[in-house]
Design brief:
The chain is α+β, with helices and mostly antiparallel strands. The chain is 49% helix and 15% strand.
Length: 413
C-alpha cells in the first residue's frame, strides 16, 4: 500500500479520497461486495452492501465508520495508516464537491473541462476479431468483417434498448473498446447484448464466404474508469485487454472454432453469476497470466460447431419421425407444425416445443445449446420438464408421444 500511503497525506478533495479508496479495493484483489460485507461482519464492523456500492461507485462521500469498515475489509488494519485515512476524510469532508447532489463531469458523459481526470464506475467491453491480419484475408475482407463487428455491436445494444449514441466506442483496428453509459446494468451487457452479438455473428457467417468469416473474442469487466480530454484510462481498462490477450482463452476459441468467445473478469463473475443473475453452468474458470497481470477469468464459448450426436438415439428418433410423417399433415396433405400442435395438447411452452423439435431432428444437448444460445444445463432442465409433462423417461419416447399428439390433432381437425 506504499503508493497509496504516499498520496494519502496530500489528499484533500472528495474525488481524490474516493479514488484512493477504489485503489485500495484494486490492491486487495477486487473482492466482491458480498465478500467485503462478510469480512466486515467478521471484523465486528458490519456495513451494508448498498453503502459499499455507493462508496465504490463514488455516489457520495461515505461516513468515517463506513470508510473504516471498508478499509479493514480490504485488509488495511494498521492503526497509523487508518489514522491517515481518517485525517484525509476530515479534509475531504469540507471540500465543496463533497456536498450531496454534485454530479462529477464524467458521470454526465462529457469530458471534464480540464486535464484533471474525472471518474465513474462503468461496464467495460473489449472486442477483437480473430485472424484479422491473417494472410488469407485481403483488405476488402477486413473492411467487411470490421463492418460486421460494429453492426453486431449496434444491434446488441439496440436489443438491450441502450441507444448507440450513449455508448462510448473506440475503433481499435481489429476490434473495439466499448464503455457502457452509467445507467447500463452489467447483467444487460453480459446477457442480452452478448447474446444478440452472437446471433448477428452467426447470421453474418451464414451469408459470407470463408474469407469473410467473423469470429469474435469479447472480454467484460466492471470497474472504475478515469476520463480526461484524451479519453478513458485506468486499471478497469487494462484488465479486460489482458483477459482478451490470454493465450489459453485464444487457444480454446480456436480449438472449438467458436464464433464468439466470452471471458468475464473474476470480479464481474462473482457479482453477476454467483449471485444468481446468470447461470454458472455457462462458464468455465481460466487462469490468466499476461505481462504483469495474474488473474482469474471465466470463459463461455458460443456458436461452436455441432458435436456428433448419439448415433443410436438419432437413428431411433429418425425412424419414429419417418413413421409418423404421414400423420404430420393436415387432411388436405399440407404439413402441420411439429412444434405447434403437440405443445398445445401437452402444455409445453414455446421454448420446450422448440427444444423437442430439435430433439426430433436428432440433435444432442450440446448441439441444441449452441443452436438456441443457452447452456447445456438449461437444455437438460427443459428436457426434464418435457419428460414430466409427457409422462416419459427418455428422448425417443418423448418424440414418439409428440408425434402421436400431432396425429391425434390431425384426426380431430
Amino acid at each position: 500500500m506504499t503508493e497509496i500511503s504516499t498520496l494519502l497525506p496530500h489528499t484533500s478533495s472528495r474525488d481524490g479520497l474516493l479514488r484512493l479508496l477504489r485503489q485500495a479495493h484494486e490492491k486487495a484483489g477486487l473482492p466482491s461486495l458480498r465478500t467485503l460485507e462478510q469480512r466486515a461482519q467478521r471484523n465486528g464492523t458490519p456495513v451494508s452492501k448498498s453503502s459499499l456500492s455507493d462508496l465504490l461507485a463514488g455516489r457520495r462521500l461515505p461516513s468515517p465508520g463506513v470508510v473504516g469498515a471498508y478499509l479493514r475489509a480490504c485488509g488495511i488494519d494498521d492503526p497509523a495508516e487508518l489514522a491517515e485515512w481518517e485525517d484525509a476524510w476530515i479534509r475531504a469532508s469540507v471540500d465543496p464537491s463533497s456536498q450531496k447532489g454534485r454530479e462529477p463531469d464524467a458521470a454526465k458523459g462529457q469530458p471534464p473541462p480540464s486535464d484533471r481526470p474525472e471518474g465513474r464506475f462503468a461496464m467495460v467491453m473489449v472486442l477483437n476479431i480473430a485472424d484479422f491480419g491473417a494472410p488469407w484475408r485481403d483488405d476488402d475482407a477486413r473492411v467487411h468483417v470490421r463492418s460486421a463487428l460494429f453492426g453486431a455491436l449496434r444491434s446488441g445494444f439496440g436489443a438491450a434498448r441502450i441507444p448507440w449514441a450513449d455508448v462510448h466506442h473506440e475503433d481499435r483496428g481489429d476490434g473495439a473498446l466499448v464503455i457502457a453509459p452509467p445507467d447500463a446494468a452489467p447483467e444487460v451487457l453480459v446477457g442480452p447484448v452478448v447474446t444478440e452479438i452472437a446471433r448477428q455473428v452467426r447470421r453474418h457467417n451464414r451469408l459470407s464466404s470463408a474469407i469473410g468469416q467473423l469470429r469474435v473474442r469479447i472480454a467484460l469487466h466492471v470497474g472504475y474508469v478515469l476520463r480526461d480530454r484524451h479519453g478513458f484510462c485506468g486499471h478497469a481498462l487494462v484488465l479486460p485487454f489482458r483477459l482478451l490477450d490470454a493465450g489459453p482463452f485464444k487457444q480454446k476459441c480456436t480449438e472449438r472454432a467458436a464464433e464468439v468467445g466470452v471471458i468475464l473478469s473474476d470480479y464481474l463473475y462473482d457479482e453477476m453469476v454467483r449471485n444468481g443473475v446468470l447461470d454458472p453452468g455457462d462458464y468455465l474458470p481460466q487462469s490468466v497470466h499476461v505481462k504483469e497481470t495474474v488473474a482469474q477469468g471465466w470463459i463461455r464459448l458460443l456458436g461452436e460447431p455441432s458435436a456428433p450426436s448419439d448415433p443410436l438415439t438419432s437413428a431411433r428418433v429418425a425412424v419414429l419421425v419417418d413413421a409418423a410423417s404421414p400423420a404430420l399433415t393436415t387432411g388436405s396433405g399440407h404439413p402441420i407444425s411439429t412444434a405447434d400442435a403437440p405443445h398445445k395438447r401437452y402444455g409445453l411452452s414455446a421454448r420446450e416445443a422448440e427444444i423437442l423439435e430439435l430433439v426430433a431432428e436428432g440433435l444432442s444437448n450440446p448441439q441444441i445449446a449452441n443452436r438456441v444460445f443457452i447452456s447445456e444445463k438449461t437444455v437438460k432442465n427443459h428436457l426434464n420438464r418435457i419428460f414430466t409433462k409427457l409422462n416419459v423417461t427418455n428422448r425417443a419416447d418423448a418424440v414418439e408421444v409428440w408425434c402421436r399428439g400431432a396425429s391425434r390433432a390431425d384426426a380431430t381437425g
